[in-house]
Amino acid sequence: MNSILIVVSTPVSPPSQEVHLPEINDHPVRLFVKRLDLIHPLAGGNKYYKLKYNLDAAKKAGHSTLLTLGGAYSNHIFATAAAGHLAGFKTIGVIRGEQPQELNPTLAKAHSYGMKLSFMDRPTYRKKNEKAVIDELHKKFGDFYLIPEGGTNQLAIQGTREILTAGDKTMDYVCCSIGTGGTIAGIIQSAMPHQNILGYSSLKGDFIRKELQQLLGKHQIPFPARHHIFTNYHFGGYAKHQPALIQFIKDFKEKTDIPLDPIYTGKLAFGVIDQIKSGYFPNGSKILLIHSGGLQGITGFNQRFGETLDVE
Q1: Which residues catalyse the reaction (predicted)?
Q2: Which residues are part of the catalytic machinery?
């Protein structure tokens, strides 16, 4: 069985692209996008970093099956299916909610890579981390290597520490989306002392600040002095959107040739550019926006909402 480190060909340093937008040209800052979405067409984005050490651990422990959990449009579900397929694992996806009559594009693609899909009612799913629920999963499926929802655990953070590389040392600000917190945790741990780490939550509510603090504490990662979490660019909450966000994503693609998704990276880029226009960043700042991927979900989004966002 090959490790994902072998079967997924990734550059030593994902490319960073400087972007020039008419609406920020009058502001004396420079904006760069770190294109994690270009690492691999299947197991790319931040999910590559979250999964690679987990897959290695599963292999070393002798597991042949990966089990993970997520929503019906989850990037993590798809990435686990694809990475597991590439690395020779069987995969099981426990999906929140009732089984639909027809699989959406995300679940259909996951299934096409051999993932066995099992649907869990929402009350039980809310208890997914409890021992009783996990024991029931073992009774149903036998032995498996468990990867948590969103992929965030100690090994995931070990991977996301590698997102920032030597070429990023000159950046003054590093900006990324926040979901389960695993990506920003790794970035915080590997950032240079002079760098400001900015997180943009895709979820509605200020609870994310406490959750991130708990995550960092759990993994003994010092909370950096130079950080800020923004909770005002969620556009209604997780998986929610508004017309202004959709138009922004379309305009951004037309001007930069960089596709964004409406769940994470679209909200992140909207927030960063809004702050550039408002003068949040000091003159001369170099700003790095982490493109965490997630483009696989656009097909399902377009189908569900009758939109025409570009997927590449």
Answers
A1: 74
A2: 74
